[in-house]
Design goal:
Elements: H1 12-21, H2 51-64, H3 68-81
Length: 87
């Protein structure tokens, strides 16, 4: 691993060019640890959707300019956050 030596810059453009061209791989420890990070142990859940419902979701998602996954997640969250109606 090399030590990063940052020069004194004359102007913003010179500094920008330096950072844009810098490959940080040479300055990372070679212990395979620098790229590891903890993530929650969560995963996506697949749910079967009836074809007619899927077609409506796809159409609505396209109209809104979002993916079907985003639309479904938003709709589910909105529904889950609605106050429960008790009879």
């Amino acid at each position: 691993m090399k030590a990063l030596e940052v020069p004194v810059f004359e102007n913003y453009e010179e500094e920008t060019a330096f950072w844009d061209a810098l490959d940080t791989a040479d300055f990372m420890p070679d212990d395979d640890e620098w790229f590891r990070f903890d993530t929650p142990h969560k995963r996506a859940v697949r749910v079967a959707i009836l074809p007619q419902i899927a077609e409506e979701l796809i159409h609505t998602a396209q109209k809104q300019g979002v993916s079907i996954e985003t639309l479904v997640n938003v709709l589910l969250l909105e529904h889950l956050r609605e106050p429960a109606v008790t009879s």
